[in-house]
Specification:
The complex is a heterotrimer. By secondary structure, chain A is of the alpha/beta class. Chain A contains 10 helices and 5 strands; from the N terminus they run αβββαβααβαααααα. Helix content of chain A is 34%, strand content 9%. The longest helix of chain A is centred in the last third of the chain and has 16 residues, at 253-268. Chain A is globular, with a radius of gyration of 20 Å. Chain B folds into 2 domains: 2-202, no CATH class; 215-325, no CATH class. Chain B is built from 10 helices and 11 strands. In chain B, the strands form 2 sheets. In chain B, strands 1-9-8-7-6-2-3 form a 7-stranded mixed sheet, with helices on both faces. Chain B has a 4-stranded antiparallel sheet with strand order 5-4-11-10, with no helix packed on it. In chain B, a hairpin with a 2-residue loop joins strand 10 (246-251) and strand 11. Chain C folds into 2 domains: 10-94, Elongation Factor Tu (Ef-tu), domain 3 (Beta Barrel); 100-241, Nucleotide-binding domain of ferredoxin-NADP reductase (FNR) module (Rossmann fold), CATH 3.40.50.80. In chain C, helix 5 runs parallel beside helix 6 (206-218). The radius of gyration of chain C is 18 Å and the shape is globular. The relative contact order of chain C is 0.14. The chains are: A alpha/beta, B alpha/beta, C alpha/beta. At the B-C interface, strand 4, strand 5, helix 3, strand 10 and helix 8 of B face strand 4 of C.
Chain lengths: 295, 333, 268
């Protein structure tokens, strides 16, 4: 698979179909991956592909506006691109999607917490509820030659089970548990910076006229920030899990986003990034919508 | 002064301190990691091999702290100092890199213009460190003139040995708290300690020399290449034992000092809209230069203790030690 | 013994407010302060925030201090809404100030653009109050338009001072404008100030400084004889918060006054 990927990158650069290819290279620890940009055929040998290729690389596309780029993308990454395209943040013609058939990526968070030494490579949580190994859209597909990953039989059930467990708790239990989580938030904004859907040039959290989410004293600002970000992602989050992975203090951010996505799925039958021609859900209206104030 | 103390005796001693001291130490939070917290029960104290995610810096340079408040009295404006906490503290479990980080922060906050709350926190704390039994592969303290058994900045340093700790006491504060306990270590224990100190530095995988002067390569396109993965988040800054940039924010007529970082895109954004560091290239270069060039030129040491947190927790695995050690030649010796 | 709180401001009452231009006001404060021309203070508008402003009146023209503030963001907007009698907080003075001793017995060329005249006004009036200590004084002051010129009522006084020349310029010709027209660097090329025994002090927007420096060098001023005030976002004023760090320098502590020789490697 790796050679196929490198050859594809070389071909794209040689024929000038793209100006650069965004992919993964080996990190300094010899195990993890680090995002990289390849601009010449000679550099294509740096590209790697394995279970360490966890990151969603879509965020780097905005570094190269109005240029044609190749991008190495898993199924979850392509879902993010589908949402970005529907929100006019990305032109489909500006990306050559090198689709990778994915067997699942490592659970970096668990590895970090337990002191990973490379021998324990268990699959990330999000992969357990993944509906498909193959991206929904691609310009070329690099197939997995090894034994296919076991696809979840009931992705919905697996994905939303932790949310149902949370929903079953009492209000005071939920309140205490979230306060315990948010008091650790250090407002590093790694969750925002790593999220492909957080692309606002000036985030509401950075505004100071007025200050919307105070950093000074108390937990209220942390609560407001995390909840507001989840609300801004409503109907747009594709559960790539990057926010939770990037969070250095282990806040279960996916739980908040999945709760909102579950509600939207149950109320409206909509899931972000699952249809290449879908319009942004909460930004559109339909004549058949039940509310009549708009008619 | 060196003593040996059994683990249960150490815990008993710390328990006895609970009424007079706040005891802050590493605590294991299930599925999240190790965090320094004020301990209500000494049983929660974790003195194992894993490193705390956030360094103990936040107990000295707090992440958000009220400095003063303003108000009105009889129609006239007033300003008032925020009160300083009075309780003494024992901060236990710090690694040598974190204690050295405090020495570096002293150069900024306990020099010209002394920062009263930082100094108060320093004065009220007894630092009981824990020598590193198993450095991580991201550690590089030895390249930063440090060591997994270093005593710089420590009042007391614990070395985990069979069924207890060897305790080295360096300061009067340390003597006051710990001299009543334990016994002189025996010959076997002394030998174990020497071997321990010798072996630890060998466990550090990374080893490199920081270039003496990075300014010749300030304009190099090396910084475009290495800064590419950077997300401009604040993880490396906030988890760093030596990073100390902050902002002053008035909220509700209270002036707060909140931590901040040069990685953020709006750190140097001016009211006019001009930003001298508009892209991640300028910002990442500033991080590297401030730590490994500018701070050294002002204070004589690198602003880095080689703890490896920025490498371990960077969401995209950027490695500042590789970036500095691979810097192109053209940098002075 | 508790250390003094370095972040606690002193209280100062606003005793006068002058509208210099549509978006610049000069605030006069009741505060006794020992300072040098070129130093700045951290101005606290309680409930809004803090911002640094240079002291624009000379220490020979006390009592009280003056700060000229252009309305640009949160703190300055709140400040512009204050009235005479309101109280603000002042921390300082900070910064190194102009090296007045090095200016003695020299010809001084002041080059200012827009609000950049504010820190220079402090030094200009200081020099005029100690006129015998300095040789000729030349002031070149430019702005986008005549509406953006500050301290207009001081110009006649400066023009009348001994061995002092004032050149005013705006970017484009206007009705009823009889002074020079053109950007400041072009005006310098026209008037050709003498570089012998001279010091040039430049203060203005970054773009003006960028194009003025090569002109001064060409006129024969050496980098050590050109002074400028650098500006970056500043918060603490004491070299701690890291915001104004540029190279191994902190603008608040090692500056804001620098010679061009000191900073030419750090400003592109």
């Amino acid at each position: 698979m790796i050679e196929e990927l490198r050859n594809k990158a070389r071909e794209l650069l040689k024929t000038k179909q793209v100006e650069a290819v965004i992919g993964y290279q080996r990190a300094s620890d010899g195990l993890s991956a680090i995002p990289c940009v390849i601009r010449s055929e000679e550099e294509a040998g740096r590209l790697i592909w394995d279970a360490a290729c966890v990151y969603n690389l879509c965020g780097y596309l905005k570094d190269f506006r109005a240029k044609k780029l190749g991008i190495v993308a898993k199924a979850c990454d392509v879902r993010a691109m589908i949402v970005l395209i529907s929100e006019n943040q990305l032109n489909r013609d500006d990306v050559f999607i090198i689709g990778m058939e994915c067997c699942g990526v490592v659970d970096e968070k668990r590895a970090r917490v337990s002191g990973r030494d490379g021998s324990d490579i268990s699959s990330a949580d999000k992969c357990k509820s993944c509906a498909s190994c193959v991206p929904l859209a691609y310009d070329c597909l690099i197939k997995e030659k090894r034994e296919k990953a076991k696809v979840s039989e009931d992705a919905d059930k697996d994905k939303y089970e932790p949310v149902r467990k949370l929903e079953a708790k009492s209000l005071s239990e939920k309140s205490k548990s979230w306060k315990d989580e948010f008091k650790r938030c250090i407002r590093c904004y790694a969750c925002r910076q790593v999220c492909p859907m957080c692309y606002c040039p000036r985030c509401v959290a950075d505004q100071f006229m007025p200050v919307w989410f105070s950093k000074a004293g108390g937990i209220e600002g942390n609560f407001s920030w995390n909840v507001a970000r989840a609300m801004h992602l409503a109907g747009r989050c594709i559960d790539c899990g990057e926010c939770e992975r990037a969070c250095p203090v282990g806040i279960p951010l996916r739980d908040i986003n999945r709760k909102i996505e579950k509600d939207i799925k149950e109320l409206f039958g909509y899931e972000a990034g699952m249809k290449t021609d879908a319009k942004p859900f909460l930004a559109c209206f339909d004549k058949n919508d039940p509310e009549d104030f708009i008619k | 002064m060196t003593k040996f103390i059994k683990k249960e005796d150490l815990y008993k001693l710390l328990n006895s301190f609970l009424k007079d001291f706040e005891i802050i130490g590493p605590k294991q939070i299930a599925n999240k990691g190790i965090f320094y917290e004020p301990l209500e029960s000494i049983e929660d104290l974790y003195l194992g091999e894993l490193f705390a995610i956030e360094p103990a810096k936040k107990f000295f340079l707090e992440s958000s702290e009220c400095l003063f408040h303003s108000g009105f009295l009889d129609g006239k404006a007033t300003v008032q100092d925020a009160p300083l906490p009075d309780k003494r503290r024992i901060i236990i479990g710090l690694r040598p890199c974190e204690a050295k980080g405090l020495i570096l922060l002293d150069k900024v906050f306990d020099s010209e213009y002394k920062d009263r709350s930082y100094i108060n926190n320093r004065e009220k704390s007894v630092i009981v460190g824990l020598a590193c039994a198993k450095p991580d592969k991201s550690c590089f303290c030895t390249s930063m003139d440090g060591s997994p058994t270093g005593s710089r900045g420590m009042d007391v340093l614990l070395f985990a040995v069979e069924d207890g700790f060897i305790v080295e006491i360096y300061s009067d504060k340390g003597k006051e708290a710990f001299s009543s306990l334990g016994k002189e270590p025996d010959e076997h224990q002394n030998k174990t300690l020497s071997a321990y100190k010798q072996k630890r530095s060998e466990l550090i995988g990374k080893n490199f020399k920081v270039p003496g002067d990075l300014s010749p390569i300030f304009e190099s396109d090396y910084w475009d290449k290495v800064s590419f993965p950077c997300l401009s988040c604040g993880v490396c800054t906030y988890l760093c034992p030596t990073c100390h940039c902050f902002e002053l924010v008035d909220e509700g007529r209270k002036m707060y000092r909140c931590n901040d970082g040069c990685a953020f895109s709006n750190f140097t954004l001016e009211a006019s809209g001009w930003n001298p560091r508009p892209t991640k290239k300028e910002r990442y270069r500033q991080r590297v230069f401030h730590k490994f060039d500018y701070f050294k030129k002002i204070f004589g040491e690198n602003l880095c203790v080689g703890c490896g947190r920025c490498i371990r927790h960077c969401p995209v695995k950027m490695d500042i030690s590789e970036i500095v050690s691979n810097a192109p030649s053209g940098a002075g010796k | 013994m508790e250390t003094k709180n370095i972040y606690l401001p002193r209280l100062a009452e606003i005793t006068d407010i002058k509208q210099e231009t549509p978006d610049i006001k000069t605030f006069k404060l009741k505060l006794s302060l020992v300072y040098k021309p070129g130093q700045f203070v951290e101005f606290s508008v309680f409930g809004e925030g803090e911002a640094p402003f240079c002291i624009s009146n000379s220490p020979t023209r006390g009592p009280g201090i003056e700060c000229s503030v252009k309305m640009t963001g949160k703190v300055t907007q709140a400040l512009h809404e204050l009235n005479i009698g309101d109280t603000v907080g002042i921390r300082g003075p900070y910064g190194n100030g102009f090296p007045v001793e090095n200016l003695k017995n020299k010809n001084i060329l002041f080059v200012a653009g827009g609000i950049g005249l504010a820190p220079l006004r402090s030094l200009i009036n200081y020099c005029l109050d100690r006129r015998e200590d300095f040789k000729s004084i030349t002031i070149v002051n430019g702005a986008r338009s005549s509406n953006d010129l500050v301290y207009k009522d001081e110009y006649p006084i400066w023009e009348k001072a001994k061995d002092t020349r004032l050149y005013l310029t705006v970017d484009c010709q206007e009705d009823n404008w009889s002074c020079m027209v053109g950007v400041v660097p072009r005006i310098l090329e026209q008037i050709k100030p003498v570089c012998q025994d001279s010091v040039a002090i430049v203060c203005g927007p970054p773009i003006m400084i960028k194009y003025t420096m090569p002109v001064l060098l060409k006129l024969g001023f050496c980098p050590e004889a050109i002074m400028t005030t650098l500006e970056m976002k500043m918060k603490c004023g004491m070299g701690k918060c890291g915001r104004c760090n540029i190279g191994p320098l902190y603008i608040c502590k090692d500056g804001p006054v620098f010679s061009y020789a000191q900073v030419k490697n750090y400003v592109s």
